[in-house]
Amino acid sequence: MPSFIIHIMIPLLVLLALRMAPARVALLMLPFTLIHDIDYWIGTHRATLHNIFVVLPALFLWYKWRNEPPQRATYAGVSAYYLASHVFLDLFAGGVVLLYPLWNMNIYLNCRVLVETATDTIIPTCTTELGRGAPTVVDVYTWISPFEISIVVWSLGMLGGLYALRWYRERDT
After folding, report:
1. In angstroms, rounded to a whole number, what is the distance separating the alpha carbons of residues 105 and 99?
2. For 91-141, what is each residue's pLDDT tens digit?
3. DSSP result, 60-82
């Protein structure tokens, strides 16, 4: 199960790297990456809110506002992107019930990239697995792993370095 760090950092970094939205909007809408996990307390985890019916209202607003002042469409588009990214990431980590409550089947994508060292051949594999009901989620899991801590530290270091570089350039002008 990806921790909240993965659910926050990956979509945010992709959004900022591709310059799909202003950084201010990307940071302001960031809580939308974690809204799905409320179903841990109010229903069946990975089913009640981990489905496309949570993403559709934001997509509808984006579609409705796309020709109006761009700020409204940007907020709706970023929220839809964040909502969809959470569901997408969970597809690879135990699966989700995408069409809950209409169809109670867990969809799980099992993808791996293997490297055959004798021939330096890359072998990507991806299989889809279906199961009845919501996926089993462990009661206790590592809240943040050492790998995720390194992602946070690296990201903060890069952000600090970029701000230091910006400060240095502005100081000389």
Report:
1. 8
2. 888 788 877 778 888 888 888 888 988 898 998 888 887 777 666 665 655
3. HHHHHHTTS-HHHHHHHHHHHHH
